[in-house]
Write a structure and sequence with these properties.
The protein is mostly beta strands. The chain is built from two helices and eight strands; from the N terminus they run βββαββββαβ. The protein has one domain: Jelly Rolls, CATH 2.60.120.1140. It is about 5% helix and about 40% strand. About 35% of the residues are buried. The N terminus is likely disordered. This is ACR family protein.
């Protein structure tokens, strides 16, 4: 219908899902297909408060759709990075994500928002986490890691790509 015109949804992910919000926000369910977790190669490092984290970078839409879903653990020195082509308000949800996470919303290397200790979603209706401020990256770490390293809004996160 006409109400759907003008709605932009850049990512609908089955797991820890970025959802781009516009003036009228609708969450559209991704097609029902069986998807299992993924382990991507380490292709970047993040340096935060002197600590180095190995990052899987979800580059393709399919990799971003799967994200960290179905994973049962995430090492203290590991994370997943989502990179957006242009800055935009972004929201994530935890559908099919089995482990709690810290989500760090970044713009030009600076922390804009932190969603700490985000629990897995075990219902059909999942809350979203994010910011209405334009961001260009989201970094996911094991739950509790941002508190452990003392990360705060405004801090810098250095990302170094291997390729």
């Amino acid at each position: 219908m006409n109400q759907w015109l003008g709605i932009v949804v850049s990512f609908l992910l089955l797991g820890c899902t970025p959802i781009i919000a516009t003036e009228t926000t609708h969450v559209v369910q991704a097609p029902a297909k069986e998807v299992r977790g993924q382990n991507l190669p380490i292709s970047a490092y993040a340096t935060i408060a002197g600590r180095k984290f190995e990052l899987e970078v979800a580059k393709t839409p399919q990799q971003q759709q799967i994200g960290l879903m179905y994973r049962t653990s995430l090492a203290d020195n590991r994370g997943m990075l989502f990179v957006f082509e242009s800055p935009q308000p972004t929201r994530f949800w935890m559908k099919n994500t089995l482990i709690p996470l810290d989500m760090i919303f970044l713009r030009e290397g600076r922390v804009i928002e932190i969603a700490a200790d985000v629990p897995p979603c075990k219902t059909t209706t999942c809350p979203t986490y994010g910011t209405d401020t334009e961001i260009d990256k989201v970094l996911e770490l094991r739950s509790g890691m941002t508190a452990q390293i003392g990360l705060k809004v405004g801090d810098r996160v250095e990302i170094q790509y291997l390729n």
